[in-house]
Amino acid sequence: MFKVAIVEDDLPTSQQLKDWILSARPGIQVEQWFTRDDAEAAIAREAYDLVVLDIELGRERHAGVAIINAINKGRRGTPVLVVSAMPATIYRSIMKALDAWDYLQKTTFEESDFIDTFLEILRATRSQDEAETAPPRGDELSIDPLRQSTPLWQGQRVNLPLTAQRILATLYQQRGQVVSYEDLFLVVKSGRNRDNIRKHISTIREAFRELDEDFDRIENIPMRGFRWSDPLAGGRK
Length: 237
Hints:
Elements lengths: L2 E5 L3 H14 L4 E5 L2 H10 L4 E4 L9 H11 L6 E5 L3 H10 L4 E4 L5 H23 L7 E2 L9 E2 L2 E2 L4 H12 L5 E2 H5 L8 H18 L6 E4 L3 E4 L9
Parallel strand pairs: 1-2, 1-3, 3-4, 4-5
Antiparallel strand pairs: 6-7, 7-8, 9-11, 10-11
Helix pairs in contact: 2-3, 6-8
InterPro entries: CheY-like_superfamily, OmpR/PhoB-type_DNA-bd, Sig_transdc_resp-reg_C-effctor, Sig_transdc_resp-reg_receiver, WalR-like, WH-like_DNA-bd_sf
GO molecular function, one term: phosphorelay response regulator activity
Protein name: Response regulator transcription factor
């Protein structure tokens, strides 16, 4: 049975998130915490499969950041889904740097968006242990072929939002071939335009270069799309 913690100081919001989770997976054990101190104490003693948290708790503007740091310090690898009213344009990159799995900005997403993101993270955590026990050799990319998640590069997890994970999986499945913008539109849920795809590609490249500064596998094919190049096939540039 999965065990999930919701850290949210607003009771109606906390209850709504709990209801959404239970509607998606009725058997999940959900624990609700409303303060930083209570949440940190629970995280220290419990092994959660996923933590859903707000950044601002009460008057403490960055309580969620402290909780993520506590999770990272415990080295349990517990995935964190941030649900916050803080502007995504500012805080998504901050949460990425803290190794949070994804960021949803309140009032900008619907129930279906939350459930899809939540379930994808659960599936990723289920397969993560298997993926990490068989790290890739050399510089090969490892992606779970069923879940299209938990990408590993040189044995290290590539920290990507879920939409970027889906784009990466699509490129890698068709490596050596040009993947058109139109094909990539099919794997994003919103922002189906070329500028948005290019932003996701930029995010993917940055995440890889955090692990490997020489990473250059994703080629831009002008006016057409992108290609994952295999150096063994002579496609690397």
